[in-house]
TrEMBL record:
Species this protein is from: Sylvietta virens (Green crombec)
Domain KANL3/Tex30 alpha/beta hydrolase-like: 27-209
Lineage: superkingdom: Eukaryota
Protein name in the entry: TEX30 protein
Annotated Pfam families: Abhydrolase_11 (PF20408)
Length: 221
């Protein structure tokens, strides 16, 4: 289902992947610095989640400024929260690369205000860009260290923008419940020599879904 989401005086293009049964939970998903919501990994994940009963709303926001992307992500969260078509109990924010930085920033900002009503259940970071390639002295970890909701990282062990030991170091300092799933030998684009894209995406999709399921159950015991 294609929708246009109001954002300031513009609209963001977005697509709902809707499960057959009425969903209780949703995932809002966005892309990295390049590309848009039709990036194959996002399309694959959205279809997988919908086929397993989770609503997925993916959106496009062009712009290389994280603050701008964060504002856009917030507008999408508000839109879904107020939607009459889908009354959800909660939503997980997910993004690829720069999109996951924007998602982390939204969660940090919303958790500081008085409007933290538990609607956001967790964060999924696909290929989180912890640092620029070869520039490991400056880590983009400020939002991660201040988040308290559960976080899942799915990263390639050969990601040139997320050195394995550095991410493990950041994660060990995080207050939030967290998990890292390493895709062996994958680069920032999740490509692995000797494995097909579909094969890698199946691994990622299954990991994301099983983590979502665990976290929904944990909160509703």
């Amino acid at each position: 289902v294609k929708v246009k989401i109001p954002f300031g005086n513009k609209y963001l293009d977005a697509i709902f992947s809707v499960p057959e049964k009425k969903p209780t939970y949703g995932v809002i998903l966005t892309h990295g610095a390049g590309g848009d919501m039709n990036f194959p990994h996002l399309v694959s994940l959205a279809a997988y989640l919908a086929s397993h009963g989770v609503l997925c709303l993916r959106f496009t926001c062009k712009g290389l400024n994280v603050a701008y992307r964060t504002k856009a992500f917030k507008a999408v969260v508000e839109y879904l929260k107020l939607s009459d078509d889908y009354k959800l109990s909660g939503v997980f924010l997910a993004g690829r690369s720069m999109g996951s930085r924007a998602a982390a920033s939204v969660i940090h900002q919303l958790s500081q205000g008085d409007d933290d009503d538990g609607f956001i259940q967790g964060l999924v970071c696909l290929s989180y860009p912890l640092h620029r390639p070869k520039l490991q002295s400056k880590l983009r970890d400020e939002d991660l260290l201040l988040i308290s909701c559960p976080v899942l990282f799915v990263s390639g062990s050969a990601d040139e923008m997320c050195e394995k030991q550095l991410l493990e170091g950041v994660v060990s300092k995080m207050k939030a419940p967290k998990k890292i799933h390493w895709i062996d030998k994958a680069n920032h684009g999740m490509a692995v020599k000797g494995r097909t894209t579909n094969d890698v995406m199946e691994e990622i999709n299954a990991q994301v879904f099983s983590w979502l399921k665990e976290n929904v159950q944990l909160q509703h015991k």
